[in-house]
Specification:
The protein has 154 residues and is an alpha/beta fold. 43% of the residues lie in helices and 19% in strands. 23% of the residues are buried.
Length: 154
C-alpha cells in the first residue's frame, strides 16, 4: 500500500471560465492531492475553435487584420487569466503541488481526451463536458459537481 501512495500520479483538471471547473480544482486539491505528494497536477484550458469568417461580413465590409488580431489577443488573454486564476488556487490550497499548465486549441471535449491520451494521465477531474470525456478516455474520470444552493429550504 505504501508503494501506491508514493507513486507519482498525473492528475488532469480541465478548467474554463466557469465556476464548476474551479470548484472541481479546489475539490481535487482538498481531497486528492496531499501535502508533499509526488503528484503532478495538469491544468488544461481548451481555447474554443476560432469562428470561420468569410472575407466579407454581412454588410459587405472586409474584416481587417487588426480585427482578427484583436480577436486572437482576446482569446489568449482569456486563456492566460483562467490559467493564472487556477494557479493561484493551487498556491493557496497546496503550495507544494507540482503544476503544469497547458492551453490547447479546439473543442474542449476533444482537447481533453487527446491530452489525456498524449500525456498518459492517471485520472481526470471535470466540472463540465463530462459525458463525452467519461465515455472516451481510458483512465478514471471523476465528475465534481458544484452543489446548488438550497433555495427556499429551511
Amino acid at each position: 500500500m505504501a508503494d501506491v501512495a508514493a507513486k507519482e500520479r498525473r492528475i488532469l483538471v480541465a478548467i474554463d471560465e466557469g465556476e464548476e471547473s474551479l470548484y472541481a480544482l479546489t475539490w481535487c486539491l482538498k481531497n486528492v492531492i496531499t501535502q508533499n505528494s509526488k503528484d503532478t497536477l495538469i491544468l488544461l484550458y481548451a481555447k474554443p475553435p476560432k469562428a470561420v469568417y468569410t472575407a466579407l461580413d454581412g454588410t459587405g465590409y472586409l474584416f481587417s487584420s487588426d480585427i482578427m488580431a484583436t480577436i486572437n489577443k482576446y482569446s489568449n488573454d482569456v486563456a492566460n487569466r483562467v490559467i493564472e486564476k487556477a494557479r493561484k488556487i493551487c498556491r493557496e490550497q497546496n503550495s507544494d503541488v507540482k503544476v503544469e499548465a497547458r492551453v490547447e486549441n479546439g473543442d474542449p471535449r476533444d482537447a481533453i481526451c487527446e491530452t489525456v491520451e498524449k500525456l498518459g494521465v492517471d485520472v481526470v477531474f471535470l466540472g463540465s463536458v463530462s459525458n463525452h470525456c467519461a465515455q472516451n478516455v481510458k483512465c478514471p474520470v471523476l465528475i465534481v459537481k458544484k452543489p446548488k444552493p438550497n433555495v427556499g429550504s429551511k
